[in-house]
Structures are given as structure tokens and as C-alpha cells.
Amino acid sequence: MFFGNTTLLVMFVIGIIFSIIGFGLRDHNPGMVLMGIGFLATLFAIINKAIEVFG
């Protein structure tokens, strides 16, 4: 099951935004959580796209 290109792009952009916001708040626990969620969302989008492209 693969998500569409638009969904993966939205997940990638939201992941980057969460990472940037989390990096600004990294001294507090919510900042670390946002950085982690952003990183995982970005990683998930990249891996899904790579699986779709390379089989």
C-alpha cells in the first residue's frame, strides 16, 4: 500500500516544519518531541517513495 505523491509531499513538508519548530524549542520537552515526530515523518515519506521507485 503506497500513499499518493501528494500525500507523501505533504507528510514530508509537515515533517520538515515540525523539525524546524522543534529545533527552535529543543531546550524543552515539546521541542524534542516535535523534532522526533518531524524526523520520523520525513524518514517515512522518503522510505515510502524509495520503495515505490526502486521496487
How is this structure best summarized?
The protein has helices at 5-24, 29-54.
Task: Please tell me about this protein's structure.
- The protein is mostly helical and 55 residues long.
- It has one domain (5-54).
- 84% of the residues lie in helices and 0% in strands.
- It has helices spanning 5-24, 29-54.
- Helix 1 (5-24) packs antiparallel against helix 2.
- The longest helix is centred in the last third of the chain and has 26 residues, at 29-54.
- The model has no long low-confidence stretch (mean pLDDT 87).
Could you name the key traits of this structure?
84% helix, mainly alpha
* Rg over CA atoms: 12 Å
Total strands: 0
Overall structural domain count: 1
How would the global form be characterised? elongated
- As a percent range, the share of strand residues is under 5%
Count of helical segments? 2
Distance between the termini: 12 Å
Spans of at least 5 consecutive residues whose pLDDT stays below 50 are none
What structural class do the secondary elements suggest? mainly alpha
Fraction of residues in helix: over 70%
How many strands, what sense, and barrel or not for the largest sheet? none
Query: What is the overall pLDDT average?
Result: 87
H/E element string?
A: HH
Topology at a glance:
Layout lengths: L4 H20 L4 H26 L1
Helix pairs in contact: 1-2
